[in-house]
């Protein structure tokens, strides 16, 4: 078995009456990106907080590079970086002051803290904003600064808690390319996300989390193969939907769902393509307005894995 | 560097961060800068016009040690607000996920707030000198007076850290403010205790703020020496130092422990 740098075994955590983690297991291979995918309240953030020594689990154990997150919390803290949805930077300082302060707290020494701050600001394209108070930064800039702050000591393991939630597409792309750059440098990344496409683009392995435990864990390709892509056919009138549904069922072998004028079915076979879909509709005499083959959404992943839609719990 | 050295270095870094906040937002200092002036006007000229000083003397000379002590006590509010505000922010999570000394954040907060308190006290002293307050016992006695004030301030800063960690958010911290006025009023700060009903007088005489005020009057040579035979008022300097050290001995370990476990359960 390949060595896992991040290991969580049977983690339990309860907040009052809410069970945030119910026996969560996770293993992350060194130098890979693990995408922890799940809806709001599934326990992703709680799991990350336990792994980052911010929370003590009620039961179970976790370790980073063999160091226990509870018994050797300080040892773990030397190995990890944390960046998250709640940008953990000081709003009342400038971007550069933030980085220099964190550098000092990592005991780099004054001169190296300054040099490292300038180097990272330059590398992540924040030099122009370096002297401005973070209060005035856009959401994307804050997230980027937050990400940079977790990189000051180039930690071997980086935790990114929903790094792109609430960001515009351009900022999302910037964060994604930053993460790819880090992974190329050998950093192990644990990334939580609500977006399947984000996990798909960045992760080597995806752990799907629901109600505080991992319900599926595999490579994105195999996970998608299990779930299948979706074939959407939009027809011009509702009257056409039964014929379209019948044609889709014939083509994919799966039961289609109908929503207004959109008929949709899971696709598991590679032989099914846009072209065969269009031909099938033609043969059935259905006038399709649009035919699209797309990735399943998180909701559809959950439906496939749990047999029920993803439901949101109150986030703890 | 050893663990102790790093703890001090980290505390210094956090203290500089807090002082940098003030440099970027000088508006936050306005309260510290103008409240002494307001206090002197309200108490020195409005209430003071009707309050006789025991043993005679200028009421404003009687008042200034009380206002200094009030400033020292208000230190608790400054720190509560800052700690409560900081604690909800993500930056605290980052601190806690870093291999830095756990005590650095509370030491940094109290260090920075002590600097703010000292600035406030200097402004208060200048304002006092303008309205006729004087020190009468020479340099060393004067320095000792301010030393006692700063020690008391520091102890109350630490009390503020503990309370700030307990209240958890800024709104609750704000609501606590009015509760601290009775603490300063129930003392010899503005009026002599002799005229109070006896049960109230006992509370006022044992109030640590009274010892601090009496210590300042003694060291600065200002009028209003207490005519009481309770120990804290017959030995006000020793009593103030003891009260402050006792408070620090209780609150520093509690506050650092509280900071260490905050959010972990």
From TrEMBL, chain A:
GO terms for cellular component: plasma membrane. It is found in: Cell membrane. Keywords: Antibiotic resistance, ATP-binding, Cell membrane, Membrane, Nucleotide-binding, Translocase, Transport. SUPFAM superfamilies: P-loop containing nucleoside triphosphate hydrolases. One of its GO terms (molecular function) is ATP hydrolysis activity. It holds the Pfam family ABC_tran. It comes from the Bacteria. One of its GO terms (biological process) is doxorubicin transport. The keyword ATP-binding applies. Its main location: membrane. Signal peptide: none annotated. It is a peripheral membrane protein. Residues 6-236 form the ABC transporter domain. Belongs to the ABC transporter superfamily. Drug exporter-1 (DrugE1) (TC 3.A.1.105) family. PANTHER family: ABC TRANSPORTER ATP-BINDING PROTEIN (PTHR42711), DOXORUBICIN RESISTANCE ATP-BINDING PROTEIN DRRA (PTHR42711:SF19). This is ABC-2 type transport system ATP-binding protein.
Automatic annotation (TrEMBL), chain B:
InterPro entries: ABC2_TM, ABC2_TM_bact-type, ABC_2_transport, Nod_factor_ABC_transporter. Keywords: Antibiotic resistance, Cell membrane, Membrane, Transmembrane, Transmembrane helix, Transport. GO terms for biological process: response to antibiotic. Residues 27-262 form the ABC transmembrane type-2 domain. One of its GO terms (molecular function) is ABC-type transporter activity. It is found in: Cell membrane; Membrane. This is Transport permease protein. The lineage of its organism: Bacteria, Bacillati, Actinomycetota, Actinomycetes, Pseudonocardiales.
């Amino acid at each position: 078995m390949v060595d896992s740098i991040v290991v969580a075994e049977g983690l339990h955590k309860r907040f009052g009456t809410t069970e945030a983690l119910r026996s969560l297991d996770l293993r992350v291979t060194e130098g890979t990106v693990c995408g922890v995918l799940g809806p709001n309240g599934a326990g992703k953030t709680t799991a990350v907080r336990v792994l980052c020594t911010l929370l003590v689990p009620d039961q179970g154990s976790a370790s980073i590079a063999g160091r226990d997150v509870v018994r050797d919390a300080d040892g773990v803290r030397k190995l990890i970086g944390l960046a998250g949805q709640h940008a953990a930077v000081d709003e009342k300082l400038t971007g550069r002051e933030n980085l220099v302060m964190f550098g000092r707290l990592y005991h780099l020494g004054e001169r190296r803290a300054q040099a490292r701050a300038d180097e990272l600001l330059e590398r992540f394209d924040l030099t122009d904003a370096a002297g401005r108070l973070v209060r005035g930064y856009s959401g994307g800039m804050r997230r980027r600064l937050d990400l940079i702050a977790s990189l000051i000591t180039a930690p071997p393991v980086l935790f990114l808690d929903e790094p792109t939630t609430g960001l515009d597409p351009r900022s999302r792309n910037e964060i994604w390319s930053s993460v790819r750059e880090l992974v190329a440098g050998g950093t192990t990344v644990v990334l939580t996300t609500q977006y399947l496409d984000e996990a798909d683009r960045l992760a080597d392995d995806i752990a799907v989390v629901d109600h505080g435990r991992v319900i599926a864990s595999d490579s994105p390709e195999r996970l998608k193969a299990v779930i299948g892509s979706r074939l959407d056919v939009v027809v011009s009138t509702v009257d056409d939907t039964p014929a379209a549904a019948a044609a889709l069922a014939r083509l994919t072998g799966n039961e289609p769902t109908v929503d207004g004028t959109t008929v949709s079915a899971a696709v598991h076979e590679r032989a099914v393509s846009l072209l065969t879909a269009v031909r099938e509709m033609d043969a059935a005499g259905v006038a399709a307005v649009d035919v699209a083959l797309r990735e399943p959404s998180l909701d559809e992943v959950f439906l496939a894995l749990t047999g029920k839609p993803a439901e949101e719990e109150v986030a703890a | 560097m050893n663990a102790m050295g790093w703890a001090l270095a980290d505390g210094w870094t956090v203290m500089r961060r807090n002082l940098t906040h003030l440099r970027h937002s000088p508006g936050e200092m306005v309260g510290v800068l103008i409240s002494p002036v307001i206090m002197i006007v309200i108490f020195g000229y409005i209430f003071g016009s009707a309050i006789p000083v025991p043993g005679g003397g200028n009421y404003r000379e009687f008042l200034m040690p009380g206002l200094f002590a009030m400033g020292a006590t208000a230190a608790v509010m400054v720190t509560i607000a800052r700690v409560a505000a900081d604690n909800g922010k993500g930056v605290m999570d980052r601190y806690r996920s870093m291999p830095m000394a756990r005590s650095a954040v509370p030491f940094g907060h109290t260090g920075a707030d002590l600097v703010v308190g000292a600035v406030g006290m200097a402004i208060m002293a200048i304002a006092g000198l303008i309205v006729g307050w004087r020190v009468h016992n020479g340099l060393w006695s004067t320095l000792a007076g301010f030393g006692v004030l700063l020690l008391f301030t520091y102890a109350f800063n630490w009390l503020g850290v503990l309370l700030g960690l307990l209240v958890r958010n800024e709104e609750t911290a704000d609501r606590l403010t009015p509760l601290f006025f009775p603490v300063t009023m129930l003392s010899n700060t503005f009026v002599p205790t002799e005229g109070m009903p006896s049960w109230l007088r006992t509370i006022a005489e044992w109030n640590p703020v009274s010892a601090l005020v009496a210590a300042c009057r003694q060291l600065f040579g200002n009028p209003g020496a207490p005519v009481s035979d309770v120990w804290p008022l017959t030995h006000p300097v020793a009593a103030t130092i003891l009260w402050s050290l006792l408070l620090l001995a209780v609150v520093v370990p509690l506050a650092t422990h509280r900071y260490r476990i905050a959010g972990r359960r």
